[in-house]
Design a protein that fits this description.
The protein contains eight helices and seven strands. By secondary structure, it is α+β, with helices and mostly antiparallel strands. It has a seven-stranded mixed beta sheet with strand order 2-1-3-7-6-5-4.
Amino acid sequence: MISYLKHTERGFSQLNSWEKDAWINVQKPTNEEIGYLKGRFKVPDEFFPHIYDIDERSRIEIEDGWMLIILRIAHKQDDESLPFVTVPFTIMLSDDCMLTICDFETELLQGFINFASAKKIIINNRFEFVLQLFLSSTIWYLKYLKQINLYNQVIEKDLEKSIKNKELHKMLKMEKCLVYFITSLRGNSNLLLKLQNTKLAKEHEFDKDLYEDIEIELKQAIETANIYSDIQSGMMNAFASVISNNLNQVMKQLTSISIILMIPTLVASLFGMNLPNFMENNNYSFLGVILGSVLLTSSAFIFFKRRNWF
């Protein structure tokens, strides 16, 4: 879907058609919309394959007067197997056109529009527009990291009650999400450094404080993701040790039970042989064998109990 937005002092306002220096926002583009963008705005064909490559890294390209900026943004999806991922978000700039395309419907864009309107953010030029998108994407990383932390706390409580494969699989999924976040945030951090040295940054005056805010938020997001990942790894190792200890305890109990049950079987086997012994003519031999088996079994049970094997 293509939408046109114009920045004013009150934020972004919706336009019915494109105007010069207006922001063209495209989400989940169709083939017809891609064809329209190529024909109407002369966007290079080489840029569009990057939109659909889920593994596209953060970088900058320049082609035929257009600048392509690929930013990795956090995305929450309705998939229990992997609730949080990162996806490519492309920003295409020419002398009179600002174009953003994403193959996913993300919360970032609407959040950015609402925030700019509520706070009446002033965007003086195209480079500041890119920086504001950069800042917004980093803030969404921090929001999703808080949600991941809450998920982990719930999983940890479930694991304390009952250690099952289901809860462990959930922890592995959250660990995978954190790995995606850390990798993408590092790529975005490198991209921010490259942006400062581009022709776009040198041609436009921009708010230095805004750039520093992005650096601070990026560092905070990376450190937070690393901390959560370390906690997650430590938690996984701790619960793995607990599972191993529980398994050892169960095996110890089963071995003890097997030994105790083996004693009466051994006694019965010895006295059940077709060989002469001192009790074959005794009327109380059967009772004596039973009592002897009970006594030996009880002694073994008391021995194992004192050693805490039960």
